Amino acid sequence: MLNFKIYSLFPEMFPGSLKYGLVGKAYKNKIWNFETIQIRDYSKYSGNSVDDKPFSGGAGMILRPDVISESIEKTTTKEELKKSIKICFSAKGKVLNQSLIEKFKNEDSFILLSGRYEGIDQRVINHYEFEEVSIGDYILNGGESACIVFMEAIIRVQDKVLNNPETHKHESFQNDLLEHDQFTRPSIWSAPDGSSYKVPDELLNGNHSDIEKWKKANSEQNTSKNRQDLWKNYLKNKKND
Asked: Rounded to whole angstroms, how far apart are CA atoms 100 and 175?
């Protein structure tokens, strides 16, 4: 079973959206499980305080290393710490992408640390060897949302989670390409303003060769338009093939 241990100041945020859909079904089928730890419960300070002013000055508060360490030491064995993948969600971490998910997909134990306020004292991150991960180039109020994103991405690549395992072979980020556009019935759709939109002819003629060519061309078009970083990698790898 895939296990997540989550350290957070807002454990009530979990499982959140993860209890719905195929991921929620996988939880009921015991494909994955989670445990939340309230960091504040391990504070020895007045009012269960967990943060303090940064030595570097500036706005915001920093989560104390001693409080976080106490929460970890009291709830996690040395063996669990050693075998688990330890992730701390931080705006300055490496960006989460599908390659990172593929790297971790066969692991079965994760310890996830969700920060709040201005951040987490770097010493506790370094001591426990947390890998810092960001879900994008923007700022959130805390790591809980990022944690849920990471969990869903890991869960959905597990065996028996998706109804059709072939889905993984045709998703965005495979071979540095975004996914092609998708269409379903009706083949001609009339929008509320009277505009008419038709599904591309190549997808309707039943010719598998034409369909595959259209999918690849459309994927290339989407990638070059929306993700120049992926497009450059794709062209580079294509040239080296």
From this structure: 14
Asked if 164 and 25 count as a contact pair (C-beta separation under 8 A), the reply is no
CA distances from 97 to 100, 110, 135, 198, 220 (A): 5, 17, 8, 33, 19
Residue 88 DSSP one-character state: E
pLDDT at residue 169 is higher than 80: no
- Beta strands (DSSP E) in the chain are 2-8, 32-38, 51-52, 62-63, 85-95, 109-114, 119-120, 131-134, 188-190, 196-198
Q: What are the φ and ψ backbone dihedral angles of 32, each rounded to 5 degrees?
A: -145, 160
CA 98 to chain centre: 9
Confidence of residue 199 (pLDDT cuts 50, 70, 90): very high
pLDDT for the residue 20:
98
CA distance 212 to 64: 54
Domains belonging to the chain, first-starting first, are 2-155 (3.40.1280.10), 172-240 (1.10.1270.20)
